[in-house]
Amino acid sequence: MKSIAALLKVHAAAAFQALYPEAGVTEAEILVNETKPEFKGDYTIVLFPFVKSLRKNPVELGRSIGEYLVSQYDEYTAHETIAGFLNISIADAFLAQYLNELSTEMPTAAQSKRIMVEYSSPNTNKPLHLGHLRNNFLGVAVANILQEVGNKVIKTCVVNDRGVHICKSMIAWQMFGNGATPASTQTKGDHFVGDYYVKFNDAYKEEVAALVAEGMSKDEAEKEAPIMKATQQMLVDWEAGKPEVISLWKTMNAWVYEGFDATYKAIGSTFDKTYYESNTYLLGKDLVEQGLQQGVFYQKPDNSVWIDLSGEGLDEKLVRRKDGTSVYITQDIGLAVEKQKEYQLDESIYVVGDEQNYHFKVLKLICQKLGLPGADGIYHLSYGMVELPTGKMKSREGTVVDADDLVAEMITLAQEQTEAAGKTEGFTAEELQNLYHIIGVGALKFYLLRVDPKKKMIFDPKESIDLHGFTATFIQYAHARICSLLAKTNYVPQALQAQEALLPAERQLLLTLEQYRSVLLQAAAEYNPSALCNYSFKLAQLFNTFFEQCSIARAESEEKKLLRQTLAAHTATTIKHAMGLLGIAVPERM
Question: Between the CA of residue 538 and those of 309, 406, 461, 532, 542, what are the distances in Å?
Fold first, then answer.
């Protein structure tokens, strides 16, 4: 079933062909928008692109096209041209019949792509924090949306489980742990290891200060601090495969993974494949040799290998150190090749913060210059950082907003709000706990997804759960209200028959429901879940207006009652579908 906008494009192209065949106007050239509320009509055809070639006054052109549409097609009842915009009104009978065919299901995609969405990418020296939450929510939502419009999507995570960062936690545990474990301290594993990362930093600062007090320069003290030298030696030992170091590394990472799994379960993040840096950090070394032979890379006298990207507006980039070891970009190139071999991807989307914009420009350029399969499909879904009203967060100082703490806080806020509103009657204790989780986590997800990914944002927990604001809670309540209303009015789905004229609120709600597929396609094309957030909120608002103006229980006729019930049912279905793609559940009772 075509959208009304798509159908109007077909009919408008036919009108141009009939009236102005010399212009050769096609559907693809015709732009159709929703008519602005201050004008009459439902959809607007933009005429400016054709005025010059046809040498027609835009008002005359609009009048001729509008008259053709109204006279030739039963779907349209009136037209009005304002400057270069032709506003078209849709027939009530057509809209009512269209309601019978509405569905949230997408038509079978003409061409499905194989798309990998990589997100989360945590370090194993600390728990997930607020920034990780925006990353996970974006990754899951984009993957869901792309899959919904017909693509084969593979959700992946790359765990940064090696390097100096985890060695810092390991050294601190050896120095201060006294054999403690997550179980013995009743601490979640990722929090337990993260605490030792903070302890490392505190001890490191003290040692540096002591060395400076003894007369050493700060730069030298930072290099000579015993705890840092021990950490660097541990990294060397790890790379050499020293058994006791590898054993401790495996033990502490296992604690972290158990903690991560609990958090992922609470926030609804899943992955089809997980890559570990400890298994991938040597990838790409052979590609450096290949690049040297192709002339893509060049070698400096000290044996380090570089690529010159100044012609692309960037600079020179190191791809192999003088001692022969690889750098981060090298293993990313190697991993990109491994992913392509395993999945034959059309697109590979990296959900990573905007501080890595340069890195991903370089990655794509290098892969393209090497002629690697899938290089053109690399896409960095860059997003702005999440800050608090108090400013930026710092992991090493222990000032980040922990993901688990934030989820718990949101669930508590949901409980307090529900109890204060007196909305707990009729629920069992278990049902209430589930409801608080749905409301709290839903509020958190929606607040972090409602902003365009490219923009930075400030997170305010209380604002995110406001029942009357631009929130998931507002939308969830609208859904629950509809479910209750349909149950009370004994709604039984059935086909609508001919209807009398639609009231403005009925008409606007129906037209907005009809636009859902177009919004979903837009969200997929732009990798932008905020489009669904905005649409869901608008739909909930319009339903509230409709409900206030158009009684279902006291409808003027049985036909009107069924029409309004059907509108309400489609609204609930569409809200549930859109919010579900965002990873947000909607309860039937609140």
Answer: 46, 27, 22, 10, 6
What CA–CA distance (Å, rounded) separates 430 from 195?
A: 33
- Residue 16 φ/ψ, nearest 5 degrees: -60, -40
Q: Could you give the residue ranges of the DSSP H alpha helices within 37-77?
A: 48-54, 58-72
Distance from C-alpha of 289 to C-alpha of 230, rounded to nearest angstrom: 34
Residue 590's Cβ-count burial label (10 Å; 0-12, 13-18, 19+) is buried
How far is the C-alpha of 319 from the C-alpha of 48, rounded, in Å?
Answer: 51
Express each pLDDT in 416-437 by its tens digit: 999 998 888 999 999 999 999 9
Beta strands (DSSP E) in 341-460 are 347-353, 378-383, 386-387, 457-458
d(CA 515, CA 121): 35
Residue in 538, 433, 519 with CA at minimum distance from that of residue 475: 538
User: What tokens were used for 476?
Assistant: 């969830």
Q: How confident is the model at residue 458 (pLDDT cuts 50, 70, 90)?
A: confident
Is residue 448 within 8 A of residue 386, CB to CB? The reply is yes
Q: List residues bridging with 155 in a β-sheet.
A: 117
Find, among 134, 146, 142, the residue nearest to 455 by Cα: 134
Looking at residue 28, what DSSP letter applies?
Answer: G
Instruction: Return left, alpha or beta for 384; rule: phi > 0 is left, psi -120 to 50 is alpha, else beta.
Output: beta
CA separation for the pair 570, 163 (Å, rounded): 52
What does the block give as tokens for 187?
A: 């601490």
CB atoms within 10 A of CB 529: 29
Mean pLDDT of the chain: 93
User: 496 near 562, Cβ under 8 Å?
Assistant: yes
Round to whole Å and give the CA distance between 540 and 537. 5
Q: Which two tokens stand for residue 269?
A: 């993040």
